[in-house]
Amino acid sequence: MRIAVTGGAGYIGSHVALALLQEGHEVIIIDNLSNSSALSLQRISLLAGRSAVFYQTDIRDSEALRRILRQHQVEALLHFAGLKSVGASVSDPLSYYDNNVQGSLRLLQVLQELDLRQLIFSSSATVYGPQQAAPFAEDAALAPSNPYGHSKLMVEQMLRDLCAADARWRVAILRYFNPAGAHPSGLIGEVPRGIPNNLMPYALGVLSGRYPQLRIFGQDYPTPDGTGVRDYIHVMDLSSGHVAALRQLQHRAGCHVFNLGTGRPYSVLDVVDAFQKVSGRALPYVLLPRRPGDVAASYADPRLAEQALAWRAERSLEMMCADAWNFTEHNPDGY
Asked: What residue spans of 60-180 are helical by DSSP H?
């Protein structure tokens, strides 16, 4: 198939683009490079043995989108482009509504105009309400607690409304939990801009000497070791989940929502132990009070994806940490 990937130079988008190339698809990457690097595209080509077509374009540029999609006669689109920091969304919410919501709206308008109605959307477990008890199934209450989560939920609602209005749409909404790891080659991985907000990138910064110690918020949660537990999924498993969802869309119209997670909760100290094991280095940390808004446990019920997509996350926490550390060692300054 001829498949467009918005945000395809970024962390998750680059791994999915590689998986699609390896499946034999023609891949057209659309990325404004605001939070990614064109070097990742060179490395995708090296790993796949063939190249994706690349356009440095913003998804809010409707005319450029229209021209690209029409020129390549694109048959399906995977939508990753958007801002993704929870903390930044709280301090600058309008930029998140502009990029994530307005950008998606313009994209959907172009898709509808071109009669291109096959779409996979990169959503997030942040759409679930913090008052819910884990594990989260797809029918759990939706009540995001930050603008980033709200922006994802708004796009989800647009997609549900589109499918209700026109039965020709084929849409998969994939709610990620905590993507981690890197390609085992060490050639592509996550390169955060600025100080990372998430546990794993920050832990890697401590291991590589960029930061003095890891800050762990909360040691008195009702969990096995008192620290918060989360569902981490290897980015390679996440990529195969997108390929499985694309296959599923060939046979079924409508709007379908799937969690992509392992269903296994890992604590912050589990992550610390795994990183120390695979790196052979100490990972110093300090225990601090809980942060407002954090929950004790957040992890997926992945059974629907297993049943409907014939997909399951296979890689362990130790593999995630080993591959992430391998990428960091080979790319100490990022791309």
From this structure: 62-71, 86-91, 93-96, 103-113, 147-165
How far is 276 from 266, CA to CA, in rounded Å?
A: 15
* CA dist., res. 203 & res. 121, Å (int): 29
Q: What is the CATH number of the domain that holds 168?
A: 3.40.50.720
CA distance 116 to 249: 13
The answer to whether position 237 is within a domain reads yes
Asked if residue 193 belongs to a domain, the reply is no
Model confidence over 71-129: pLDDT tens digits?
999 999 999 999 999 889 999 999 999 999 999 999 999 999 999 999 999 999 999 98
pLDDT for the residue 129: 81
Contact criterion met (CB below 8 Å) for 181 and 262: no
What angle, rounded to 10 degrees, do the helices at 11-22 and 235-249 form?
A: 60
Residue 325 placed within a domain = no
Q: Is residue 211 part of a domain?
A: no
Q: Which residues are catalytic?
A: 148
Range of the domain at 163: 2-180+232-262
